[in-house]
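Entry 14. Structure prediction run on the chain below.
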Amino acid sequence: MAFIDKTMFEITVSNTVNNQTQHIAGKFGTFAGDTFTGADCSAGILAVRHSLLPSEGYESIVDGSDKPEILNGNSWYMIAASNGAAGSLYGDHTGIYAFDNYETSRAQVGDNLYFVGGDTLGVGLPANTRGDFGEIIINEQYSFGLGNFTSEPTVGQYATISNGKLAPAANAPAGGSGVYFKVLRKAPVTEGAYYWGDKYVLQALRTAEAA
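Output returned:
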């Protein structure tokens, strides 16, 4: 079967209604030293926090190190999660987030950002734009599109994290690898009145950590 580039993310079974810190705002991109370069962010890309964003309107106010002095309390620069241990947390909270969009498509022309009506499923985030990222919580269930995987997964098998994507695996990873997922089921997705593609429902798990 040919690989179809369809990305999506959906919180499927969760206690998020009672967890007001599960979602944070962020801008996605890469860092070279202290220099951030914004990048387009696909729906469901897996990311970790790097550092706090400066508060809007105060970016030009810097301290003695030429870094922004007034930082936002909980908005972050986000970078792709390299692996299951990238979040550096070891409880049910993982420190690994998935881009969780609620918007219609947006297009950036110069300094202007335009909202485009129509698609609402699998919509990405333009570079240098704030969006919402939902933390992956152990034992919760999340749905991803085929485009979020490096290859087609198999129901009943597993997926690990590799540079922001899900890498299918026949077996659970070795102890100490951190966060991974079990592929519970596959289901069709309808957008409006039309078949969009398939989603894969995954359960978030964690390997046993070394003492």
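The chain is about 0% helix and 50% strand.
Filed with the rest of this week's runs.
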